From TrEMBL:
It comes from the Bacteria. This is Amidase. Keywords: Hydrolase. Residues 28-447 form the Amidase domain. PANTHER family: GLUTAMYL-TRNA(GLN) AMIDOTRANSFERASE SUBUNIT A, MITOCHONDRIAL (PTHR11895:SF7), TRANSAMIDASE (PTHR11895). GO terms for molecular function: amidase activity. Its EC number is 3.5.1.4. Gene3D superfamilies: Amidase signature (AS) domain. It is an enzyme of class 3 (hydrolase).
Amino acid sequence: MRDSDLGNMDAGQLCRLFASGEASPREAAQAALERIERFNPAVNAYVLVDHEGALAAADAATRRWREGNPLSPIDGIPVSLKDLTESKGLPARKGSLTLSAEPCEQDAPPARRLREAGAVILGKTNTPEFGWKAITDNPVFGATANPWDMRLTSGGSSGGAAVAAALNMGVLHQGGDSGGSIRIPADFCGVFGFKPTFGWVPEWPRSKAASLSHLGPLTRTVADAARMLNIIGRYDYRDPYALRGQPQDWGEALGKEIRGLRIAFVPTLGDARVDPEVAKCVRQAANRLASLGADVEEVEPEIDASLQVFNTLWFTASLAVYREHSEEQRSLLDPGLVDDARRAERLTALDMFYALEKRARLTEQLEHFNQRYHLVMTPSVAVPPFALHHDVPPGSGMRDWAEWSPFSYPFNLSQQPAASVPCGFTPQGLPVGFQLAAGKHDDIRILRVSHAYMEAFPMAYPAEPG
């Protein structure tokens, strides 16, 4: 089995080869590391690669498979962690000049679960400083480029993970999403990204935007996302927001038909303005879902405007980060993060109270809407990928990243599950995705429909950075 073959395989294919003895975790790790060596200098998806640790873990997994005693169905599978996630023995710079390169002394829940399952941790993927925005660049490691066009952004804040998934530099990639940070880069890079119900994938230490933050997978296939969730989507007492009740098997409904499911197609949520090429591609995807048997109805739900609500919470989280730093350290922070923090200084306790009240009303409206429809379908992002080193599309007149991603943050406010599903390309060859969202704890239905779509309409992936 050639490394180039192994490097293009998903977790299911690899494990079948591990079980038969036709390939080993060591060979799979070497294939992933070879792809990182080839591709990463161009796109900057990984900020740290643990060659020695990965090969040692792969050798241990190889022995277990040969003895017929794998630790889990992903034993030996190459994985990555976002650089906001702590992993014992590896640094977590979080894109900040204010943090040291000293190795962490503990595993965050995803790292711990993956390690216990025998997964091979390849390294850490790039993120903006403290994950504060929806593109991926920072003063420590620089920018992560889009694999389809390296002049463009990969999105963020899990941009490194999305690019690694698109180029299969590893198979399973962990991201985080407080306002779209899994779904936005998944859309821009043409991969599957899933934000589970809040609290079902534990996080610790918690981010400053704790009540908005969800952890989840970025992968090439829905089946691989389910495999990863079967490991990381388990209760951990260290997360004060962690919930029980996760599916025993996150992939239990994959392969079931979607006939009869009621899907609300919402082309422009609220007053969102969508690029015409994006809108066209997403509408085609809605028609395709209907052709698979889903009952797709175009609707426009009446929900309260939520950008001000989100910004109140988001800017306050930035202020909390800012105030934890000394005056000397503050001069090293990303100026955009500092700007957000300074805007929060004008907010009052009453502003926060009203924001939380409006958040509760929005959640009630969305959950009520899901009593009539099983799923809500929207564009994932309102615009195609734009120029690297810009927080908003050049010439757009926008100030904040949330303005060009109006479909993402409402589902962080509501804490509902949501996914970005790749569905085609613009005439310029840039990926487009649609979003599927559901009521709380209805994650399985999103995975079921996403899988059905991607099986019927497979996505192409870049052979190398473009």
